[in-house]
Amino acid sequence: MRKLSGPLKTIVAVWAALVALFIMYTAIFGIFQPRIQRGVVLFFLLPLGFILYPATKKSPTERPSFLDWIFAIVSMLPVLYIIISNDRLNLRMIMVDPVSTLEVVLGIINIVLVLELVRRAVVPAMAILIVLFIAYVWIAPLLPGVFYARPTRLPRLIELNYLVQDVGIYGSLMGIMSTFVAIFVIFGNFLEGTKTGVFFTNFASRVAGRGPGGAAKISVVASGLFGMISGVGVANMYATGTFTIPLMKKLGYRPQFAAAVASASSTGGQLMPPIMGAAAFVMSEITGIPYWTIAVSAFIPAAFYYASIFMRVHFLALKNNLKPMDEKDMLSWKQLLKDSYLLLPLVALVIMLIIGFSPFMSCTLAIGMTFVLSFLNKETMLTPKKLFKVFETSGYNCIMLAITCAGAGMVISVITNTGLGLGIATLVAKFSGGLLLPALMLVAVTCILMGLGMPCTPAYIISVVIGAPAMNALGIATLPAHLFVFYFAILAELTPPDAIIAYCAASIAEADPWKTGWEASLMGIMGYIIPFVFVYNTSLLFIGHTYTTIATVLLLFIGVTFSSSAITGYLFRPLTLIPRILLGVLTLGIVVLSTQATLLASFVPAMIVIVIGSAFLVGFYIFNRKMVKHFRTETRAAA
Fold first, then answer.
1. 246-269 pLDDT, tens per residue?
2. Is the bond preceding residue 384 a cis peptide, omega within 30 degrees?
3. What are phi and psi of 380, to 5 degrees?
């Protein structure tokens, strides 16, 4: 993004703040009609995108080029037409009324400029993907079998991508972005403006810093907490990693390992309720499942993802005798308690969602609470200058999301109007032989490929329009199907060759990016396993009997412990190769057992698992306490 200066910087900052203020206005006084609400947001953000994002690496970095100004001005014209023509467009009959020449021209301009901004602001791969989907409309009549579709003339293509409000640029995805997603972006920036993120890091330091490998555990806990308000992997990594990575290196961790912990932990922030990278709101809109149901269902899988990383760090610290964080570098519990009022808006948000408030209203009230509470402390006070900065940053953060939703809307338009989703589902069923596990593996690989280089929300959107129909065709329920796609779309950011979060962490740690990417993937290995478990056994999503959920959780805890031990080579004492292999085999067996939903749904087998799992949990707790006590004794003696 360009770094502007002078009067232009001020003008652009005001323009960015205006779109955030518009969203706040509609949150308080009610949203406008769909085309107007979505159109106004794009009217602000499209020109902003061309001004802030250079066309190439050789473009000016401190000012827009002449062509950028042309694009910025022209980009507003198609949007303005949609806003002005709203009443007439509401009355027209889709696929019946003719599309005028002016509408065809404006539609082409709108589509081309959105594609150009997707290329600039999101990732070129997504722009290419959208072009391929649009091209499919014309080549589909020439294709055989399930990929055949009737010819679509240019005016109809423009109508479905420019004039309608269900799909396309101004479709339902843009509607979600201009309301739910945008207001949560603003809420996140309000929390960051009041230094809630700093509080999370300080809290994580106090909770996890005193134990073995304290610095790495701080990274895990802080990333999980910060992810609850951020939901953007790279932002999460920079917010926590700039503090935790140097600290890990200082306390004896390898640079590569430090970067891997930070990147795997930051990726998980997008899996952590309640925000989940804003994709939870998109999921709710697409599936019709209430947002709070999605957030609650996602909790146990996300908790296990972090537990696996935490356990890896814990065992490695005990194995290598890595020091805890120095007590003098932590805030006291008294000071943390004094600052804990910063959490009240987040707590209030969760409570409002539980009792039935809409996400839009809940978030708006939480923003108001954040603003009022900021005045309790001079350091967190949202002065007019800080408040303007919050709105300005919110406007900037909305650019990529809006452009992504506009672009993804065109993909959905093609899929829904050609039946391509059914064709892909048929293809997956054919290659998998109708078997669930191979089909899931095909969908997982597809989602990772679709998500490479993309932020959380667009990665999920693109993946779900391709992967969800295939999973539904296999008889998988809607919620586990969408969460499965969501997990692998998110993990694309962690998976080489385009592990963007790992590469950013490696730059901070001064480590090898390629090796860091693979180590980060291994660090987050449970993220690749858990989705398969909750597809086979939905009790992990709180669907089914409570005792089945408890039994599954205990089984997975044992599995996480054994897998972490096998990879690290430590379980209360260093392990040789044979015990590590045996633990790996045991882990595989436990994971397979945890997928047996029918068995665990029976009361007697579930209770047997609960008894054995509880005994393991108690035994692990006792032995672990002894090891930590021994570790602290040795640490004090060394000091």
1. 888 877 788 998 899 888 988 888
2. no
3. -100, -5
